[in-house]
Amino acid sequence: MTRANVMGSPNIGVFARATDSYAIFPEGIPERKLERVSRFLGVKVVSLDLGYSKLIGVLSAANSKGLLIPHYITSEEEKLLREKLKVEVKRLKSKYTSAGNLILANDVGAVVSPLLGKRGLATVEDVLGVEAVHGSVAGIPLPGSMAAATNRGAMLHPQASDEELKLVSEVLKVRVGVGTVNGGVSYVSSGIVGNSRAVLVGSLTTGPELMTVSTIFE
What we know:
Layout: E1 2-4, H1 12-15, E2 17-18, E3 22-25, H2 31-41, E4 44-47, H3 56-59, E5 61-62, E6 66-70, H4 75-85, E7 88-92, H5 99-102, E8 103-105, E9 109-112, H6 117-128, E10 131-134, H7 143-146, E11 147-149, E12 153-156, H8 162-172, E13 175-178, E14 192-194, E15 199-202, H9 207-217
Parallel strand pairs: 1-15, 3-4, 6-7, 9-10, 12-13
Antiparallel strand pairs: 2-3, 5-6, 8-9, 11-12, 14-15
């Protein structure tokens, strides 16, 4: 685990997405830094923007098997992603475009915002190849924003209920816990980018927060 910035910001989870088979970072990051990230996470790092946006973590939901992107991404971009990542890529047909905020996923399961409905749930299951269920975290229907998950653990908003913790643990099959990042930010995914091998946390994350992250994702 190590602290990091992306695009000069400690909100690294807003700008990047990582899985056990690839990671996506926005264009404009020095090649040397991308190479360090690749070695740290142990996966290939692809550098690109999504729909002319650098908010990769907000706009995408992913695991090692697939990637979900907003409906307005062009078919050319979708094809490019499929070629670069070698996984299933599909545009999410919904008026809600922030797939990363709506979906919390790893290689085993996914907790999906009720805002996406049954069709969205089926799309997540099809593209990511996992069991998916509707759920919220801290009573807010944005599980991907309120939590961060890998194949080893999931960290949730401090106000997540016992029922929500149990749901995430059972669906994703990981240990769970609550905490904050970047000196008290409770929107956990904004400050974490990681996979089973390693975890990057925002540069403002404090020592006690690092200990919590380490315990959950070890």
